[in-house]
Amino acid sequence: MSAAEKDIHTALAVRLKAFQTAGSPPIAYENDDYEPVIGTLYLEETFMPNTKDPVGLSHTSSDDYEGMYQITVRSAKGGRRFDAQEQARLVALHFPRGAEYTYNSTKVKIVTVEVNQGLMDNDRYLVPVTVSWRVLA
Q: How far apart are CA 130 and CA 116, in angstroms?
């Protein structure tokens, strides 16, 4: 992973952390040791860099990075699906289209945000929120 991609991921993770109020809902960050509490709603982040293209022909030209940041709302199976869907809607509102978040001078622009169809996974009901981003670095 490039330094720019690390900064992009950090900028988005810092923004997600700002969503919490007094540590709620809990967040399972990528490759972090997190043990979910049975019956408790929590968020899970996944950083997915996609493409990196040069903007110009010079070796000093900027690169155009694109990718997705997925935040999956995970709630208990058999609970009210509306709780997870509402939480997903609030997460989506927290990453508005056109917003910019900066870390180490890397400016991340939010391109689109989608709340996806809910699905079942073992003992959890999941609602993925996909945040598409773009960076010129």
A: 7
Integer-rounded Cα Rg, in Å, for the chain is 16
pTM: 0.90
What are the CB-based long-range contacts (under 8 Å, 24+) for 45-50? 45/12, 45/13, 45/16, 45/69, 45/70, 45/71, 45/72, 46/70, 46/71, 46/72, 47/8, 47/9, 47/12, 47/13, 49/1, 49/5, 49/8
Which range of 21-30, 37-46, 126-135 scores highest in mean pLDDT? It is: 126-135
Q: Cβ neighbours of residue 3 under 8 Å, at least 6 residues apart?
A: none
Q: What share of the chain is helix, strand, coil (3-state, %, to 5)?
A: 20, 45, 35
pLDDT digit string (tens) for 102-121?
Answer: 999 999 999 999 999 999 98
